[in-house]
Amino acid sequence: MPSILSVERLDKHYGAVHAVSGVSLAFEAGEVHAVVGENGAGKSTLLKMAAGVVVPDAGEVHIAGRALAPHTAHEAIARGVGMVQQHFALVGVLSALDNVMLGAEPVRSMGRLDRAAARARAERVASEMGVSLPWDAPVESLGVGDRQRLEIVRTLVREARIVILDEPTAVLTPGEAEQLYAGLRRMAEAGRAIVVVTHRLDEVRDHAQRVSVMRRGRLVATYAMSATYRDSLMRDVTRDIMGEDPPPPVERHARERGQVALDLRDVRLGRALRGVTLSVNAGEIVGIAGVEGNGQRELVRVLAGLEAPESGTVRAGRVVVVHEDRHAEGLVLGASVLDNLVLGELRAFTSRAGIVDAAALEREAARRLERARVVPPDLAAMVGALSGGNQQKVVVARAVAREGRADAFVFAQPTRGVDLGAARAIHGEIARAADAGKAVLLVSADLAELRALADRVLVMARGRIVAELPPDASDARIGEAMLGGTEATA
Fold this sequence. Notes:
Blueprint: E1 5-14, E2 17-27, E3 32-36, H1 43-50, E4 58-63, E5 66-67, H2 73-78, E6 81-84, H3 96-101, H4 115-129, H5 144-157, E7 162-166, H6 174-189, E8 193-197, H7 201-207, E9 210-215, E10 218-224, H8 230-242, E11 260-269, E12 273-281, E13 285-289, H9 296-303, E14 311-316, E15 319-322, H10 326-329, H11 337-341, H12 358-372, H13 388-400, E16 408-412, H14 420-435, E17 439-443, H15 447-453, E18 456-461, E19 464-469, H16 475-482
Parallel strand pairs: 3-8, 3-9, 6-7, 7-8, 13-17, 13-18, 15-16, 16-17
Antiparallel strand pairs: 1-2, 1-4, 4-5, 9-10, 11-12, 11-14, 18-19
Helix pairs in contact: 4-5, 12-13, 13-14
């Protein structure tokens, strides 16, 4: 029997960049197949070609042994391929339910839209996945986590037999990720092929039956996961991803703390923030944990000056913010890498006569590019053409370059969608900011990240700080607080 999905000798160039080079790979029904690799390795491009979203320069895609022709997303969907892309493809002004229905609207007699049937189907799929969504709320009002869950439900509603997910857990808590994989396992057991692109190697170890590694556009290796040799296999996978042993993790260490540099007292904003009180000292990293949608986004926006609290006080000096949604609040996608690396800083390179020192501007952008190890290292490239992880590197590189002019940093989901090497490099930048005496507030859905970096962890639930815990607190204790456990003073 032919594989349910296979790609044969796929090739794709973007200008001088050889994104995918001669890759052949098969995906089988009944298993979860992980595809891993560094940012820019070609993973997303490969699977976009498999889903008909990107047309290859050479090679073919076969579904159940038959070539995908015409090579379009419409044809792939019609033949049972569904893809949840890393960057959302939702219509913000429409409701969650309208987005689920869009393009697959159920109708009754006389062509009337059957919203009740659409809602029942969406709720059933969401229930099977162990999630709930505000179906009547406009998507633009939803947090990143709910948008990710909505994308997954929308794909499953269309009864895809082959489900491709690009970084599906990047915005989910560990508990939510476990729920998602439980649902994916059920779908695989029911005969679907599940393909997952992820940078979280613990997910590969715990949930995949097969893993393929890409590096620099090529397929390096494919492993069948074995319960007996799982840990040794993951060491091989890690070396294959990077081409060498990974850098060591950043170790948390004691620092001399200064005065309070960020201070919020009883800050309120609608239903999102209901009396938030917290402080961060210079030279300290304070982590914020919580299920997404419990006020973290609004907290960051208040600290960035994008939202004015209705009451309470915010005392802060110069604050540099990395937002959770790099597309909406971190990048100008239609501009170059150079422009994005120095965004908002043109005045620093402009003389009193109003003349921009273009050479100095380019030298500084090149320095930041090299420090961030963006792939490809091309200042003229459009930032929108980079992989999600490399886009994040640009955002973080711009932020940390402003250390000399900052009193505090706020990092919201700073390593979402980035590979192991890049994540550890970003962790190093966060630690160095604190070492330099800056106050750091780290908002993250990744408990391992908080444990590695934070001096203390504050848990948000229902718009409040409900607990202050040491970074070595158990998952169970943190999870209890995230679900609304006993409130404690921060």
